[in-house]
Structure formats: C-alpha cells, structure tokens
C-alpha cells in the first residue's frame, strides 16, 4: 500500500460528493457503497478517480472490504489537525471571512497524506476513519463536531469542494442515527444522498426524518442553498417472499403497512415541491436482495458475480448507477433515462463530426421520448422533442416521408392538447393532404389523420365541420373494418365527444353506451379504454342530471383504478375527484383516499378531462322540466347495466 502522500492533478470539471446513510445498522450500507465505488472506478477504462471516506467513526469497517490495514491517519486525524489550525488562527489578529478561513485551514492541513490507494487496477482510494491506536477512542470522544462547525461553518462544505476538484466521485460512509457527524455527512457535504433502509417502520421513520431535515436545511440556510438529490435504496429484500415484498413496497391497509414507495413518493413530492410523482420504474429496478453468499464477511459482489444477470446484486448496483451516476431523478423512468442517454450519445457523435446518418436515429429517439412525455402529461417537454424530431426528419428524409409525417402528427396532437389549435390545424391539414395523395383517401393512416383534424376543429368551436369529417371517417371504418373493430369504436367515441361538446347529450349518450358495451365485451370491464368509455358516459349523465347513474359509473372507474394502479396514481386521483364531485351534488358521503374524507373545496382539483372539457363544472340542466331526482328511476343493479344491456336498443328517453 502507498505510505507517501498522494499527488493527484485536479479534474477538468467538478466531481460529486455522495453520502450513503442509514438510520440503523445492519442495512448493508457500507457494502453498497463499496460495490458502487468499484463500479464507478471501472468507468472510462478504469481512469475515473474515486475516493471513499469512512465517516462511521464509532464503528469503522469500510477498510475491511479492501483488505486495507495500514496505520495511516484518516478522518479523525484530519479534523484534529483542522481544529488545531483554527485554534492558532483565533489567536491571530487578522480576521478572515468564513470561506477564506476554511480554505486556508484546509490548505495548511492537506488531504493527500490521509488518503491511500486500495486498488492497483483502477483509481480507487480510501480515507480511513482514523489511526486505530490505543488512543483512538479517547481522541474520538474529545472531538466535538458541533464546536468545530461553530468555529468555522464553511469548513465542511469547503472540504467537500476541495476533494471534488480531484476526485470524480467522493463516496462518504455516514454514521447511523441522529448525531452531529451524521448531520455533517448528510446535510453539509453531499450533492447526492443515498438513504439505505430495510423495510421496517424504525428504519423508514428514521430516514424520512433525516431527508426532511437535510432538504429543509438546504432550503433555509443562505450559505447552503445547493441542490441535494435523494436516492432511496431498499436493502435486505427477501426475494422469495413475493407477498411481503409487495406489502412493504406498495402498502397494505389491513396490515397497517404504509409501504415504502408511497412514503418516498409523498416525501420527495413535499421536499421538491412537486404535486405528484411516481417511483414505479425506479423501485422496479432498485431493490438490494438478501443473498446467502454475501450475508457473511466483507465480500464485493461486483468482483464475484461479474456477469450481472437479472438475479445478481451486480445488476441492482448497475441499475442504481443508471440514476445516480447519470444525474437523473428517481422519479424519471428507466425508459426515459435510457432514451436520454442514447440521445446524448448521438448529439455528441454529431458534434464530433459523425456521419449525417446518425441524425435519423436521433430523430427516432426524440420522437419516442416525446411520446413518453406526452403519456406522462409533460407537454412542454414533448413539444420540444417532437419539434426537433420533425426538423431532423425534414432535413434528412423529405417533407412527405412517413417518419416526417409521424413526427408532424405527434407535434399536432401536443399542440391541440396545449390549446394551440390554429397551429395544430395547419399541420393536420398538411398531413391529410400528403397521406391522401401518397396512400389514397381511404388508407387507414389517411383516415386517422382526418379524424385528428376533426378533433381539432371541434375544439375550435366548429362542430358542424368536425362532424362532417368524422361521419365520413366512421362510414369508411364501418365499410372497411366492421362495426366492432377497435378503430371503429375509437372513431365512434370521438364522434360522441363532438356531439357532447355541441350539447347534443342524447345522441352522445346513445353512442357512448354502444361503445362501452362493445369495449367491455372485447377488452374487458377494467381495460383502460373501457374505463375511459365509462368516464365519458358518466360525464354525459352528469350533465343530464342523472346523478345516481353517473355516481355508479364514477365509482366503478375509481374502484377499478384502485385495483389496477393503486391509490396514488394520477388516474386514480382523477377518478376519486370525479366521484367526490357527483356525490357532493347528491348530498351523500364524499370518498377520500382509501376511505378518507375529501374536503369540498378540493373537489375540482385535477378534475379537468382532456376529452370533455369543462363538463363537470357546468351548471346542471334538468330535462323536460323534471326534477333531477326523477330523471333516473331504474333499480340500483340496473345502473351497471350501462355495461351490459347496451348491445340492445335503449328504451326511449323518459
């Protein structure tokens, strides 16, 4: 091992400090840090300098993973020297500001003599907890971290910045619990914080409190307003018990288990000021499983199971690095980060003089990323992706190439969703003209383009023109595909939407009932398209003041979304709000999150529907002069016949 001071040149950029923290011991925190460090040091032909710091001074053990047992000084001795330097400067006359004092102290102490190389095949380094001589315990007890911080608050931040100038990654193994040293490691030092926990209440409550304190401190202290990205890492997961694994991840109300995924979704939403987020993709990939092989001793999984198949710990560590090293947030899906990485690679290749053929894979990935953002409701990002994809395809292919037209169509759909209807109409008319000319007037792609144009015209307040186009498209679908083809049913649903917008509730209702019956029969009662049909019909019934029927349909959609997506998904919350709205109008109990009450002022939050505009907020209009309570007199079990009897003729309106 090296016993002389290191001499590492500064990086061309700035590195990152990442702290690994667990509230209790036994989570595998140090093991996780060690494996991540080895993987990071292997990057770029093993030329990435990585430093590990063992700050768990009361129970040091990081050195055991690397068979490192020299008597070199470490963290304790370094800050003892800083304390002495500060004491000397307090006696001096010249007063320095905080950052200048910290830099002067750290320069006098130097970090190089406290660091050792622990891998001759890569640039992997270790700063031990300290020199474990007979005086170690006494010296540790005499180190008062709060006093050291108060004497120079900038010391720890400048220490981290100094190391980040020489190491691409600085990984800090933090003390557990609520201690001064743990606060330094988690609040003052890092840019990224990995919180390692086992699925039990003590561990979860501890890391929740720590994350809340750390992010609040960063927001509230003027000198510390730096970003802090948090990555939860569930550990010791027993893969053979699928029931408990699902309970502790998703939650189980009957067992009074909240679930760590909803806990972190709520926690991170609050910390980052986001209305909602999903950690589905992240936790699908990032769970450290319990294994017999690594339950004993200090073994590095990434050096043993280097194959990295889907059952290995190596695969899990690599998955975590997709988010951690890539700088992505845990609420970004793995699909998104892989597309972003591919797009980044293509951009760099083009900037370095790559062949123009690379522009088309870039356009393809931008189009795929735009489609992902559109599904997630991130319309601004989707618009940017589709615009660039279309431009690249116009340049590299042609104005009428099928890929160019696909990008145009996607762009028009986002413009329509954002209310930029004139721009959407222009693009859709171009698409219709090109597809009719190249493919023929009754090609399925041409018919789809005409249906999109009709939807835009309807939103522009031109329902007569929209219906004329949609009727022609529907007639073609009926003739070419038959009455129960999925494209025909989608066209019927869109036509009913136009009728709904025009205020023709009766014909809209009749069409929606037919589509719902067919979709339930073909796709199932809880298919996403079937649920959309139920919601659309419920909105029409709501406008017609048939409140009991609307309530039953909204309730069916809500219960289905609970089973399919869970209580915190955006679609479930939307269905819950719609049900709460109609129940409030009925004067009955208002449903909340898994039975919790919903406050009336929040009923319309997030209730807007892309297909039906402001239908839920319009004033109810009783029909034929009747009282709303007279409008629906069928038995309760008949309400859901909206799912079953619709294939036969509906009796005349009463």
TrEMBL record:
Q: Which domain of life is it from?
A: Bacteria
Keywords on record: TPR repeat
Q: Where are the TPR repeats?
A: 363-396
The UniProt entry, under InterPro entries, shows: NLR-like, P-loop_NTPase, TPR-like_helical_dom_sf, TPR_rpt
- Which Pfam families does this entry report, sorted A to Z? TPR_10, TPR_12
Q: Which NCBIfam families match?
A: AAA_KGGVGR (NF047398)
Record-linked PANTHER family = AAA+ ATPASE DOMAIN-CONTAINING PROTEIN-RELATED, ATP/GTP-BINDING PROTEIN-RELATED
What this protein is called in its record is: Tetratricopeptide repeat protein
Give the organism, scientific name: Duganella vulcania
